[in-house]
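Dear H.,

Thanks for agreeing to be a second pair of eyes. The structure we're designing against is below in token form, covering all 428 positions.
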């Protein structure tokens, strides 16, 4: 029956139904046909409301709102200027500064598309004016923007914790080194690209001198509050002073404080508009999360996780082979499914298999998130590509071809993260 549920889910997706509708139909299907082990309609309704009514899930809309506030508040420009001041004159200095800005901004927004939009709208015009190819700049920002879901605080880590019961705080800590590793690999490719194809040194030098003329202390004072934001948010989590949900609330109020009183980039009468914008982003996700909770309950009653675990254990003879298979699976899922739904649907199903291979759930969560993060830049549904495409007036499919080198570099980092658990667990 569990296989039938997956078939029904796949059929509805294939004919063009939205994910939430496909989930709803496949969830209720065993009950409608009165299959053995199926639960009642009342129990499904309770599971749906239970999935949407938890303290931990409040972190998701709050981090979304904080990301919207930071984007409108122009925080990314402040961060970029600091990095450009130190490394802007070196080979690939400006592209590397843009990648570093994505890393830093990801520690504020928790969202890949939000990071790509906020950093891209500011850095891509600068890079193009400095003589860099517009498609290179766009694909670089799209790929580096995916670090927003890896560098804590990360919305997908919150969702994984909700779906599996894993500690969200530990997941946040575990994401630091993998995020820095991927960012370093992307910077390495930027250096190779600029070394091979060259840069307009005159334009870069003029821009750098203009930036340097402002003086370090002036730049630092202007960027201080922006640089402080991830330290406040993450410091509270890592020291145990705040839970991830409380940290998300702090990030909202800190974003408001900086944007209204420090940088004066947001007015009080704009706050309601920004709240509406974040609600529109969150509303589809909450429905998926609620239905996915009921879907997971149905699969559990049908013993799908246990049966899948037995099949996987009989198919793969080692933990490394199993993890590599998972990497391939989630790489494919990332092409056709958003990060959130993929995690809340698949993570509970695969959890029993982790015990068979003695795989740490925290390490496994990091692997899932970094694999799905690639999906943000892989066609046909690479969301970050859709975000940056209007910024350079280039079709998404053209960017989808030119992003391939970044994807290959990204995959190399993913393999290292998968096969070396210490990269995820060394800070725990």
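And this is the sequence the design step returned. I haven't edited it by hand at all.
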């Amino acid at each position: 029956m569990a296989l039938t549920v997956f078939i029904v889910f796949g059929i509805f997706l294939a004919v063009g139904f939205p994910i939430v509708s496909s989930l709803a139909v496949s969830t209720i299907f065993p009950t409608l046909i009165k299959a053995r082990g199926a639960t009642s309609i009342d129990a499904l309704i309770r599971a749906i409301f239970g999935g949407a009514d938890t303290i931990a899930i409040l972190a998701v809309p709050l981090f979304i709102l904080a990301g919207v506030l930071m984007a409108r508040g122009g925080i990314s420009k402040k961060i970029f200027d600091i990095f450009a001041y130190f490394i802007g004159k070196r080979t690939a200095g400006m592209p590397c500064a843009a990648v570093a800005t994505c890393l830093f901004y990801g520690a504020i927004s928790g969202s890949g598309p939000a990071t790509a939009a906020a950093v891209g709208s500011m850095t891509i015009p600068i890079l193009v004016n400095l003589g860099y190819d517009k498609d290179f700049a766009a694909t670089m920002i799209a790929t580096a923007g995916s670090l927003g879901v890896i560098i804590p605080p990360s919305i997908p880590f919150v969702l994984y914790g909700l779906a599996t019961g894993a500690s969200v705080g530990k997941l946040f800590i575990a994401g630091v080194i993998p995020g820095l590793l991927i960012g370093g690999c992307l910077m390495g490719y930027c250096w190779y690209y600029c070394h091979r194809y060259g840069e307009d040194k005159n334009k870069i030098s003029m821009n750098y001198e203009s930036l340097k003329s402002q003086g370090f202390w002036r730049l630092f004072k202007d960027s201080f509050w922006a640089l402080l934001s991830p330290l406040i948010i993450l410091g509270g989590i890592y020291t145990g002073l705040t839970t991830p949900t409380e940290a998300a609330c702090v990030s909202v109020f800190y974003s408001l404080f900086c944007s209204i009183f420090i940088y004066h980039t947001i007015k009080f009468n704009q706050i309601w508009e920004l709240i509406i914008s974040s609600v529109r982003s969150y509303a589809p996700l909450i429905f998926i999360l609620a239905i996915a909770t009921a879907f997971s309950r149905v699969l559990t009653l049908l013993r799908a996780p246990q049966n899948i675990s037995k099949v996987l254990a009989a198919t793969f003879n080692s933990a490394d082979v199993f993890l590599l298979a998972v990497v391939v699976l989630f790489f494919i899922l990332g092409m056709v499914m958003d990060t959130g739904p993929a995690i809340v649907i698949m993570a509970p199903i695969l959890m029993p298999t982790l015990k068979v291979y003695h795989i740490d759930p925290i390490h496994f969560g990091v692997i899932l998130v970094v694999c799905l993060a690639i999906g943000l830049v892989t066609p046909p549904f690479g969301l970050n590509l859709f975000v940056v495409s209007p910024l350079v007036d280039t079709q998404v499919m053209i960017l989808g071809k030119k992003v391939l080198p970044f994807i290959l570099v990204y995959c190399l980092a993913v393999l290292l993260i998968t096969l070396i658990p210490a990269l995820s667990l060394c800070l725990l």
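Two observations from my side: The chain has a mean pLDDT of 82. Residues 54-266+302-425 form one domain.

Warmly,
E.
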